[in-house]
Amino acid sequence: MKIRIYNAKILTLEDKREIFRGEIWIDGEYISYVGSNPTISGQQFDKEIDAEGNLIMPGFKNAHTHSAMTFGRNYSDTLRCEEWLNKVIFPMEAKMTPEHVYVLSKIAFLEYIVNGITACFDMYYESQSMSRLSEEYGFRTVLCGAINNFREKPETIEDAFLRYNNSHKFISYKFGIHAEYTTDLSILKKMSDLVHKYKEPFYTHISETEQEVSDCKRRYGKTPAELFDRIGLFDYGGGAFHGVFLTDEDLNIFKSHNLSIITNPASNLKLASGVAKICQFVEKGINVGIGTDGPASNNGLDMFKEMYLVSTLQKMINKDASVCPPEQVIRFATKGSAIAMGLNNCDTLSIGKCADVIMIDLKKPNMQPINNLENALVYSANPSNVLMTMIAGDIKYYKGKILIDEDIEALYSRAREIVKELA
Amino acid sequence: MKIRIYNAKILTLEDKREIFRGEIWIDGEYISYVGSNPTISGQQFDKEIDAEGNLIMPGFKNAHTHSAMTFGRNYSDTLRCEEWLNKVIFPMEAKMTPEHVYVLSKIAFLEYIVNGITACFDMYYESQSMSRLSEEYGFRTVLCGAINNFREKPETIEDAFLRYNNSHKFISYKFGIHAEYTTDLSILKKMSDLVHKYKEPFYTHISETEQEVSDCKRRYGKTPAELFDRIGLFDYGGGAFHGVFLTDEDLNIFKSHNLSIITNPASNLKLASGVAKICQFVEKGINVGIGTDGPASNNGLDMFKEMYLVSTLQKMINKDASVCPPEQVIRFATKGSAIAMGLNNCDTLSIGKCADVIMIDLKKPNMQPINNLENALVYSANPSNVLMTMIAGDIKYYKGKILIDEDIEALYSRAREIVKELA
Question: What is the rounded CA–CA span in Å between residue A36 and residue B164?
Fold first, then answer.
């Protein structure tokens, strides 16, 4: 399938910071042209789309989520992180079957697609369900191990690593644990053995709450980052989610191992955890990605909301309206996330890169007048501005219609039943 | 015109907190029935709408905005409040004509309608332009004086008060000044004379920044609220916008005069001002409304974003995830705002009230599964969930289409020209 999208404003997110009027061609799964002066003669396209002056840009990469947690969306919204996990989430998750994970994740995947998200970094269980769904929907998924004391083992993680890194072009798998506070030292050490055996990066929730850090210090005399570093878990890079209470010393560890921090501001607010110090991370030269976290703690999967929060919360905590500008935040949500997820071929609109492309409506009143397009994307846009979502050259969403074969009413009905089964 | 909307979930926001399956009838500008067991026989409707199980609720009331400031949307997003006003906004506003205000406000009004907002409390100049637009679009507008040292006088305010409170059913006018820091004491005293002459409420920006409060204390030995109280400006009630740095003593003044506080969390974040202490206001029994502030400091006019921020920022600053729950925040954005604006007949879905009604799409993936509808409205919904906006029984927006006669491309083009004229 050869597609031409013309009459567009184009934000490539390549190093040179510019937005130009032009077009983009997609040949199969990849971008075959992007620019403003194509040689059209002799070209044959299967489909030509007039962007009508709207914006074409790389799709958002959601660098931290737990898609299957739609069961807990708007289910319990008054507890702090620790209480919420222990009293509500973990007991419900203990009853989950592979079919539950498959069905519940479908709703999240549909939401990603509608919201212009073309890939997710999904830390959860039941990789076979996630892998099946990713393949069926044609949605790019980086699976992340979520090992802890009560679910999965290093052996199952190794098995999943070997299986899902070679199962389908849209699926990859990274080593990960849930968090220090749910994972005994013996398991952490076994995970480190795996990291060294395969020379692979490692991912985990880290320093999400004050209590998590103080408990870890009490147990080990170290912050979670110091502990993981000492055990060698970060010897081949990787990254960590949340990082609200990282210390200066922790940041040095991130820098020295070239780790990414994936920030999740909406979830951190709603669970009353706090605000990550993004400006410090940037100052240190640490790569930053953005994630929505799961739908149970956010409760939407909307990268526009996250971008707005990343930028404006930094202004607030630094008491400085000039920090964390839009051009930086857009890069966190696309390139920064792609780097964190190991999706090095999906980050920009460039010839040969994956055709993970979205179209943003600039003609809704909320974007007008367009005084600065990058600012408009971060401060004014919302999911109603997503006109098209394309993954690997395949259009999944166009002008309000989901182009995936799914009985959506039946899906919602099954999800409602599942919530009752888990309660 | 008699309209029936059936097969709906209904959130009336009457005192009894319930959501039921039912229908609503609109006769002309008013609600003629709302409930679940209507006697249909003998009824004749001009239009019947199947809500398909979606939600019908009162429209959002945007209780603080400056609609015409679309000129400054995404124009300058790196300055703190004082700098931004003095270096960018005030010089541009000095060049504005009535035609500018009329055209620029159109974009904001269209955005309100698309986003489920059925009324706004608009503090700006050129009331004749705002009034004309409000009448043409059929959009409910409460105008608010914005007097200060360099624009408008008490005499023009009195004239506007007399003229625009009787000009059109959709328009009312309240006394107001821009803020203490832009208005000399002599003008404040003249405003107080007007307040007493007409026994009318009074509105103003208040304690938006730390600097505003400390400057006022230096000038008068009082906080802005104490100064206004001493001068008698609040003797007939009213309210104030922002209130980020109100003291306990200020709150006593608000309570004793039955004033409303209108909070604007997105604007306060982006200008690095801070977070208003909403929980304290509620504890004191002070009425709270929500506003977007103008499109130059937000930069969207989206009450879903504001509701999300009101709730989650309170959780963060109080380090308690249980505070400021959704059922409270939805009431701020509808009833609380209506009270602050004097729109006492537009607050709930009840027989005889104004038919200012919106329909919310519950079938987009972001709302599923619906474990709790109020939580979903605050934590998951966004403008893409607005299916219909009706003002005074007239449908202004339905399933993606703006039903107002407007050449939108020409409007955007003129707005772009105006930005150049003001720059």
Answer: 52
Interval A134-181: pLDDT, tens = 999 999 999 999 999 988 889 999 999 999 998 899 999 999 999 999
Separation of alpha carbons A253 and B43, rounded Å: 73
Where on the phi/psi map is residue B182: left (φ > 0), alpha (ψ -120 to 50), or beta?
alpha
Q: Comparing C-alpha atoms, which of B239, B253, B159 is closest to residue B203?
A: B239
| A300 close to B (CB below 8 A) | yes
Separation of CA B131 from chain center: 16
Per DSSP, B386 falls in state: E
* Separation of CA A11 from chain center: 20
Q: What is the pLDDT of residue B101?
A: 97
Taking the Cβ of residue A369 and every Cβ of chain B, the question of whether any pair is shorter than 8 Å is answered with: yes
Give CA–CA dist A154/B166, Å, rounded: 75
Alpha carbon of A76: minimum distance to chain B alpha carbons (Å)? 9
What residues of chain A, 9 to 48, have a C-beta less than 8 Å from chain B? none
Are the CB atoms for A385 and A364 separated by under 8 Å? Answer: yes
Say if the Cβ atoms of A322 and B110 lie within 8 Å: no
Mean pLDDT score of chain B:
96
Mean pLDDT for the stretch of residues B335-359? 97
Could you report the per-residue pLDDT of A310-356, keeping only the tens digit for each?
Answer: 999 999 999 999 999 999 999 999 999 999 999 999 999 999 999 99
**Cβ contact A300–B366 (<8 Å):** yes
- Rg of chain A over Cα atoms, rounded to whole angstroms, equals 21
CATH 3.20.20.140 range(s) for chain A read 60-341
List residues bridging with B33 in a β-sheet.
B25
How far apart CA A310 and CA A290 sit, in angstroms, is 8
Comparing CA positions, the residue from A304, A308, A296, A307 lying closest to residue A267 is A296
**Which of A316, A368, A381 is the closest to B274 by Cβ?**
A316
d(CA A115, CA A171): 20
pTM: 0.98
Of B322, B246, B227, the C-alpha closest to B286 is B246
Contact B315 A269 (CB under 8 A): yes
Domain A60-341, CATH homologous superfamily name and number: Metal-dependent hydrolases (3.20.20.140)
**Please, what is the average pLDDT of chain A?**
96
Contacts of B316 in chain A (CB under 8 A): 268-269, 272-275
| Distance in Å, alpha carbon of B307 to nearest chain A alpha carbon | 12
The CATH number of the domain covering residues in B2-59+346-402: 2.30.40.10
Give CA torsion, residues B6, B7, B12, B18, to 10 deg.
150
pLDDT digits (tens, 9 = 90+) for A235-264: 999 999 999 999 999 999 999 999 999 999
Give the residue from chain B lying closest to A300, CA to CA: B380
Contact A305 B301 (CB under 8 A): no
Contact B357, B324 (CB under 8 A): no
User: Which residues are CB-contacts of A115 (< 8 A; sequence separation ≥ 6)?
Assistant: A60, A301, A302, A303, A304, A383, A386, B366
Cβ-nearest to A384 among B315, B319, B383: B383
Provide CATH code, domain A2-58+346-402. 2.30.40.10
Count the helix, strand and coil residues of chain B and give each as a percent rounded to the nearest 5: 40, 25, 35
Is the separation of the CB atoms in A249 and A267 below 8 Å?
no
Listed in order, the ranges of chain A carrying CATH 2.30.40.10 are 2-58+346-402
Give the whole-angstrom CA distance, residue B315 versus residue B209.
21
Which chain A residue has the Cα nearest residue B292? A380
Tell me how long chain A is.
423
